[in-house]
Write a structure and sequence with these properties.
Layout: E1 3-5, E2 12-14, E3 17-19, H1 26-38, E4 43-45, H2 53-60, E5 68-73, H3 89-103, E6 108-113, H4 122-134, E7 138-144, H5 148-161, E8 166-172, H6 184-191, E9 194-198, H7 222-238, H8 242-253, E10 257-262, H9 266-273, H10 282-291, H11 300-306, H12 310-313
Parallel strand pairs: 3-4, 3-10, 4-5, 5-6, 6-7, 7-8, 8-9, 9-10
Antiparallel strand pairs: 1-2
Helix pairs in contact: 1-2, 2-3, 4-5, 7-8, 7-10
Length: 323
């Protein structure tokens, strides 16, 4: 296992993150975490909204300080209480205290905003997060499932006002779902954010087979079937498992990307870990990418067309070396 620096911080995180959303059996969860730690993994991800997930993780977690422990807040703790959800200060503080109790710890390494709340000013959220960093209850902050302009504005405000900025972005990303390539991924790369990619196997669609117990291939769209077939073909060519090929493709997209995998068995974790040693040829990567057509759309495609055109940037446009 190798390690990456998390965003613009000095925090070292393993190149594969472990999500705990599907944990439901303490004994199995402990075996999975032990196997992950033995392989060098050090990031555990949960959320206040994952049912009893936080409490289960707090029950089974051993050697807490060697892990980078993260959870999220925003989603409702009480559906009848309008202030028991959202990104405002009241819910942040109450959710954080609840998570600390459930996880049996007095601090969190990563605290994520789970979802953009359009009713809370981003200034309030960033100042409230910074207060908790200064109080020693959280170390670093991140944001999940938010528009690029919101994240960019939040970090600009944090920079101007000497608050703690977001160091990570958590979003869905896989061969079938590449929407983040339009705005979110370029924004993260430009601002130096790490990108933790959830659903890296497209919720099982990329590994669906005729004998799959989770996904029935008959329920997949033609595009999904084509992608799954391409993944399976490449896997056969290189002697790997489909999950490993899908993860290898994802890891090839950007140095900022860190796959976040969720497993219910140690065998699944072992299979996913093997993807870290798999490097696909450019031909294989190109075939995988072509199997699931994706339109970047405006402004990405328009700018890409303009960049080499003399009309836009003159006759020397193609002779300028970028950073």
């Amino acid at each position: 296992m190798r390690y990456r620096l998390f965003g613009h911080t000095g925090l070292r995180v393993s190149e594969l993150l472990l999500g705990t959303m599907v944990f439901d059996d303490p004994a199995v969860a402990r075996r999975i975490i032990d196997a992950y730690a033995e392989a060098g993994g050090n990031v555990l991800d949960t959320a206040s909204a994952y049912g009893d997930g936080e409490s289960l993780l707090g029950e089974v977690l051993r050697g807490r300080d060697r892990f980078v422990l993260g959870t999220k807040y925003t989603l409702s703790r009480d559906h009848a209480d309008p202030n028991a959800s959202g990104n405002h200060r009241k819910n942040l503080v109450a959710s954080l205290e609840q998570s600390l109790r459930r996880l049996r710890t007095d601090y969190l390494d990563l605290y994520w905003v789970h979802l953009w709340d359009r009713h809370t000013p981003v200034e309030e959220t960033m100042r409230a997060l910074d207060d908790q960093v200064r109080a020693g209850k959280i170390r670093y902050v991140g944001v999940s499932d938010a528009p690029a302009w919101v994240v960019a504005r939040a970090n600009t405000l944090a920079q101007w006002r000497d608050w703690t900025p977001f160091a990570g972005l958590q979003v869905p990303y896989n061969l079938l779902q590449r929407d983040i390539e339009r705005e979110l991924l370029p924004m993260a790369e430009a601002l130096g954010l790490s990108v933790t990619a959830w659903a890296p196997l497209a919720s099982g669609k990329l590994t669906a087979t005729a004998g799959s117990s989770r996904i029935d291939p008959a329920t997949l769209t033609p595009r999904e079937l084509a992608a799954a077939e391409a993944v399976r073909t490449v896997a056969e060519e290189v002697g790997a498992r489909p999950a490993q090929v899908a993860l290898a493709w994802l890891r090839s997209r950007s140095k900022a990307v860190l796959p976040l995998v969720g497993v219910s068995r140690v065998e699944q974790l072992t299979e996913n870990l093997a993807a870290l040693d798999l490097v696909l040829s450019q031909d294989a990567l190109d075939r995988l990418t072509a199997a699931a057509p994706f339109e970047l759309g405006f402004p990405g495609e328009f700018i890409a067309q303009c960049e080499p055109a003399p009309f836009c940037f003159g006759d020397t446009a193609t002779r300028v070396d970028g950073r």
